Amino acid sequence: MIDKLRSLVGDPHVLTGIECSPYVLEGRAPEAVVFPGSKEEVAAVLALAAEQRIPVMPWGGGTRLGIGMPPSRVGIVLGLRRLNRILEHEPGDLTATVETGITLGALQAELGKRGQWLSLDPPGADRSTLGGILAGDASGPRRHLYGTCRDLLIGLAVVTAEGSVVRGGGKVVKNVAGYDLPKLFVGSFGTLGVLVEATVRLRPVPDEDRLVAASFHRLKDAGMAARAVVGSDLIPSALELLDGGALRALGLDGGAGLLVGFDGVREQVEWQCAEIGRLLAPLGMTASAALDGAERDARWRSLGDLSRRGTEDVAAVMRWGVLPTQLAELMEQGATIAQKNGLRAALTAHAGVGIATAALFGDGAGADAVVATLAEWRTVVNGAGGHAAVERAPLAVKERVSVWDEPGAAVRIMKAIKERLDPGGILNPGRFVGGI
User: Domain 208-304: which CATH class?
Assistant: First the structure.
């Protein structure tokens, strides 16, 4: 198999033995790491893997590979870093077609030369590839206004498990013919196909971009303030709710905080920054500051890195999806549960859409305490009608706590789609919901 892989992509682009150590996942080492240089080479590698029934794990920047159940076997790691070209950029149409191995940071830098950007801001943009962002449906604070990957993706080229290249969507925004196949692959975590090219819609870089950081004594007050912003005439690009643990982790004081982003025309942004102060002052706001430039970027970056610290700091990370009106109460309960189990928690949330990230910290935290906390968190969130998924945890914890909630009736449809697109079950087998 190794000889065949080398004949397909070239000897320098195949790693074996000790060279594979950076690609060990959950204690499992791959048999080979392969870096194809074109979609045709990707197709050839997948056809070989399908023929020999060898599992394949697509690998972009590796920033979100910790999400999912531990793999039983890592056969071939399919690295996409060589597929990093911008194939087409149509500034007049506000679209771009790129290979999915390009990092978001590199893509934004090139688009910025023409005064445009892709309105996605997940953490770790310098390492995260566009393919990994799409496969993991990753997003950041600006999803409040600009949406997620599904809203920005126009077309997609995918290599199937059997080595066929298929395309869905198109290269223009107004494309309504046929099934919207690209959205099927967004959030599929590499279980349905390998994403090799994507066409995305762009936006002009805003004239002005500011961040208003507001502090509160209580998380309840900050939650009420977030709801007031949503119900007002303001149009924030981001609305982030932070508990006291998150503020302390960022080196800030206060019992809770609200980070509100505004971008657009200068006059409009200046008015909104002034108006939000008048709106939040009667709701318990104790202090506020408007940031821009490097200080603004550093604050957003620190927020994104909060759950991505060194392995010795972060014990586990769980993502919740609940109603926005429930966020403050559930975040308070989550912090109390962690404290009861001897751990520190930092909780943040996209306040307008109801997505919370709960990080556990504790130097040398025992697995029992982490397991107990995650289990109680899931019980609370599920009891409120929400869902929870473990985004990061040691193997000893994942063996005792399910990464995903119990799948509902829809898992039958999901399994049927998996069987149709990956009949041999070679793409990231067993890692997704319901053992897909």
Answer: alpha beta
Q: Are 393 and 374 in contact (CB under 8 A)?
A: yes
List residues bridging with 435 in a β-sheet. Answer: none
Please tell me the predicted confidence (pLDDT) of residue 143.
Answer: 96
Tokens 């149009």 correspond to what residue?
A: 235
Decide if domain 1-204 falls under CATH 3.30.465.10.
yes
State pTM to two decimals: 0.93
Residue span(s) of the chain under CATH 3.30.70.2190 come to 208-304
DSSP string, 375-392: HHHHHHHHHTT-EEEEEE
What DSSP state is assigned to residue 42? H
What are the Cα distances from residue 4, in Å, to 9, 38, 45? Answer: 9, 17, 9
- Strands 76-79, 32-34: pairing kind: parallel
- pLDDT tens column, 336-364: 999 999 999 999 999 999 999 999 987 66
Distance between CA atoms of 42 and 30, rounded to whole angstroms? 17
Average pLDDT rounded to a whole number, residues 145-157: 95
The SS3 call for residue 341 is: coil
Give the length of the chain. 436
Class of domain 314-398: alpha beta
Q: What is the largest CA-CA distance in the chain?
A: 70
